Amino acid sequence: MTTKYTRGSFQLMKSMNRSIILNMIREEGPISRAEIAKQTRLTPPTVSNIVKELINTQFVIETTQGMSKGGRKPTLLEINADQFYTLGIDVGTFHMKFVVTNLFGDLKDVTSLPIGNYPGNEDILSIMKQGIQDLLYSGKNDPDKFLGIGVGMHGIVDPEEGISLFAPSFQLRNIPIKEELEKDFNMIVKVENDARTMTLGEYWFGNGNDADNMVGVNVGNGIGAGMMIKGRLFHGENSIAGEIGHVTIDLSGPKCTCGNYGCLQTLAAGPAIAERARKELKTGKPSIIHELVDGDFEKVDGQVVYQAACEGDEFSIDLLNQTGRYLGIGLTNLIHTINPKRIIVGGGVSNAGDFLMKGIEETIQSRGLTDKAKETSIVLSKLGEHASAIGACVLVLEEFFVR
Ligand SMILES: [Zn+2]
């Protein structure tokens, strides 16, 4: 007889050995009990007992698929990937995105809700609850399958308390996300900065490829970085670590929303690209953008610049190259500060990846301190527009699978 996993038995999963075995099955399955015992150095009876429990809770199933050297096929273990789901939320400036993933991070459902102008704390929470309800009770997904909810929120977040301390796009402070969602949905809720969730998502299911020292840079309406050091997200003393959008690149550059001048995001984030394009187009620079926006400069945004670049517009290609060089300076600073094995560039602006990459690589080549610094691997996000939301799901998975 099997026992259905319930949220109440979550504490059960906290056992270290159980969690390590579960993760080994996730990463290396299908795998035999004997191989698990060998790799973990736990005794075969211990492994057997824990595996029995994992099968009872339906996290793991037995399979006979796998290598067989004649004779009896060995019984192997694998993750019961679609038995449990997690729900991830990415809170952007204009939209909130909601995804449902299985235990392997595969997308099962997606929805998105607009965030109106000048929202209050209550508005943010009620949009979140609406999106969660839409996915839990649409009839498409069994609500009992959900292990928990992860939230990737822009700005400064207190991940321990699950509070958004400061969300600059909304100018809001102290939104008690964890407390509110746990109260309404009675499941685990984890909250983290969106650049960090993007990094976590790439580390588990994207282009991280087990680079234990890596950085994910989220370039959208602002710029933030999630820093993974020895396989763990680094927060700094007050969760401010990684705010590279506000690293000064040009002392006499444009004024930033933070009050300083020439921050990286005043030169390389989406709105900065649009602003530079507008300024130069007004001086009469030739570009097909004039036609694309019908002479209305208000319609110029990052997307239009990218579209023009794809159509071979030299003005737009140069502009994105220049943006890549600014980003390259920011990334070189990161390389010299924490020396990651890999940097993953994601977020809306990274859609223009190919045009940016040239400028980024040239800058790192010319400014990197040593050959090793210059060789730092720079890649685009694999999970693309869903990276932060999928990474938010990983916040929940981390509770079950100890790496
Ligand atoms: Zn700034």
From TrEMBL:
Record keywords: Carbohydrate metabolism, DNA-binding, Xylose metabolism
GO molecular function, one term: DNA binding
Keyword Zinc annotated: no
Pfam family, one: ROK
InterPro entries: ArsR-like_HTH, ATPase_NBD, ROK, ROK_cs, WH-like_DNA-bd_sf, WH_DNA-bd_sf
Gene3D superfamilies (UniProt xref): 3.30.420.40, Winged helix-like DNA-binding domain superfamily/Winged helix DNA-binding domain
CDD domains found in the cross-reference section: ASKHA_ATPase_ROK_BsXylR-like, HTH_ARSR
Entry's Gene Ontology BP terms: D-xylose metabolic process
Domain of life: Bacteria
PANTHER family cross-referenced by the UniProt entry: BIFUNCTIONAL UDP-N-ACETYLGLUCOSAMINE 2-EPIMERASE_N-ACETYLMANNOSAMINE KINASE, ROK (REPRESSOR, ORF, KINASE) FAMILY
Recorded family membership: Belongs to the ROK (NagC/XylR) family.
Functional note: Transcriptional repressor of xylose-utilizing enzymes.
Name recorded for this polypeptide: ROK family protein
